[in-house]
Amino acid sequence: MAEIELKDLEMHYKKNEKRLKLFLLPKDEADKKNAIIEIRAGTGGLEASLFASDLFKMYEKVSGKKKWSLEIISISKSEAGGLKEVIASIKGINIYSTLKYESGVHRVQRVPDTETQGRVHTSAATVAVLPEAEEVDLKINDADLRIDVFRAGGPGGQSVNTTDSAVRITHIPSGISVSQQDEKSQHKNKAKGLKILRARLYELERSRINQERSKDRKSKIGTGDRSERIRTYNFPQGRVTDHRINLTLHKLDEFLEGEAFDEIIESLSLRAQEESLSNL
User: Fold this and answer.
1) Tens-digit pLDDT profile for residues 122-149
2) Which stretches within the chain are classed as H helix?
């Protein structure tokens, strides 16, 4: 009986040891926060803007399935229904812990509608996911801000270009600047601009602290490096590949519909935990 019990205990020992270590891992305070997501068309012209639009629709579908609330802060459309840039706020439960692995360069390989020879083109879009910072997280001194107001441009109602409703906020110490002109009210544009600015400054400080803590760390998962190519969406082969964990799913359509999204996120999260454990 003792030998049987010993075998049983040995079997559970490693599992329990790993679970215990996971509990001991330092928690990311931002994991429970809401997020601000920024998507920008990269190299590839019109096709890149169409891909940026596809990515945004994917995050909209993921949000819908998870019952998150997504609100567009600012949006800049291109021709043919694409997006040059979109910034949105996503609210719900454990948003940042799910979406933080999305930061980086997303690459698409497909045949554009305008391509007559049937050649596959490669284009890209960048995604940045920032934890939404509250005033208690980050105190911004009014003296550090320069606020300029100007007339909104582009298509709109009769009030466009007749009132100084657009706002540009510059954080002088860091040089970070945010422009906001989607609302007709200067007050609303200022509030939205400050929300984006606060999130960017909070992420800048988090990155600085993380770099100081892990100068020797070689891990790339979850670093949020926007210059890093993290994922390829290959339409001719119907696959999506995450390069950080060498994981390929041959279900591209389901992924873009938000159906297979959690498969990659769970794998990324597990790998990030393993890397954190090895760095203990």
Assistant:
1) 999 999 999 988 766 677 888 888 988 8
2) 2-24, 45-65, 95-99, 186-213, 252-256, 261-278
